[in-house]
Amino acid sequence: MKIDPGVAAYCEGVLPDLKERFAKIDEIAEYNQLKVIKAMQDNRVNADCFHYASGYGYDDVGRDTLEKVYASLFKTEDALVRPLIACGTHALSTALFGNLRPGDELLSPVGKPYDTLASVIGIKEAKGSLAEYGISYRQVDLKADGSFDYEGIKAAITKKTKLVTIQRSKGYQTRPTLSVARIGELIAFIKGIREDVICMVDNCYGEFVEKTEPSEVGADMVVGSLIKNPGGGLAPIGGYICGRADCVENAAYRLTTPGLGKEVGASLDVMRSFYQGLFFAPTVVASALKGAIFAANIYEKLGFSVVPNGSEERYDIIQAVTLENKERVIAFCRGIQAAAPVDAYVTPEPWPMPGYDCDVIMAAGAFIQGSSIELSADGPIKEPYNVYFQGGLTWAHSKLGIISSLDHLVKAGLVTL
Ligand SMILES: *Cc1c(COP(=O)(O)O)cnc(C)c1O
């Protein structure tokens, strides 16, 4: 692959110190693998579950059994797991619109939510937003040190507060990602003020990183995308909402129609990939985590600022590296692209993108378009020249991608070892 042997050796050099951490990641993956198998066994998954279902989708056995599997896995009363859910934003939007009514208020006690939710909530003016339906929004930012502003949260919970949204992953912000334990503390605090407030967790990028999920520490709903962690790289589309039966039912009426809810929505021929992807997900997440930690340690050793840093605990799969100039961001992304199994011959270029206020360069050579559980990177071309990357279906591929990124930087004369 024409990788400079010096670069490869430099990267290999960080691995001995990571042995213990990788062993811990493998141990979590093993635990979660057993959890998935147990949920499939307990719900009697069988070959009929993989059959094609068309039309209305009444009594779609594969779909209904998969929802039971998700409910067992997340330890919730019910689940909605559908190819009709287009993406993570759609899953979150469905959960919100399904459970909020005019006059209600939505609260985010962990600061600004993921960018795409700005239009859903109406923080950014948008047609069809919650704001247009008379649903108000309040936000309490985290304190400067990343801790919860308990006083601010207490003051923000009023009679109108119906639903609290808690984003587990930092996404592409600089705040810390929340551990399941911290989410549990926050939910306990909120329920202590008003027990009837619905607590929803945006679980994107967090699934299977720990042994427990937020639904085990009091969340009424956990919501995510199947082209991230739980799809295991095989699900070609989809999202999930797991939680309290009444919350899931409300979301289902929003996804399809009032009255029909979960009863309709044929699964077509995606069920095998949903089951098999879920089966692979714990080890896929482990691979992505190892890649992120590997990269953090290499780039940290080279003197770059990395978030999270090389040694801290991980609660999601995203890694940011501050590369300090445009040329490095471009070279890094080209290195990731060059290591992909698909589209490796393509040279990514920075380009204007909808929703961004600057050019962005994106690297992805994925089997599923846009899948960010597969090794992928993007760099907004602006200060401080961060590159964000995540994923890797196998550790060997993740590792190759990181080595290739450094190889491109070194060959372009932008980094010296
Ligand atoms: C990816 C993501 C979303 C949105 O998911 P899409 O599938 O891109 O619509 C929402 N929240 C978080 C934290 C995410 O990482």
Automatic annotation (TrEMBL):
Database matches in InterPro entries: Met_g_lyase_put, PyrdxlP-dep_Trfase, PyrdxlP-dep_Trfase_major
Pfam families associated with the record: Met_gamma_lyase
UniProt feature coiled coil, ranges: none
Source species, domain of life: Bacteria
SUPFAM superfamilies hit by this protein: PLP-dependent transferases
Protein name: Methionine gamma-lyase family protein
Organism: Ohessyouella blattaphilus
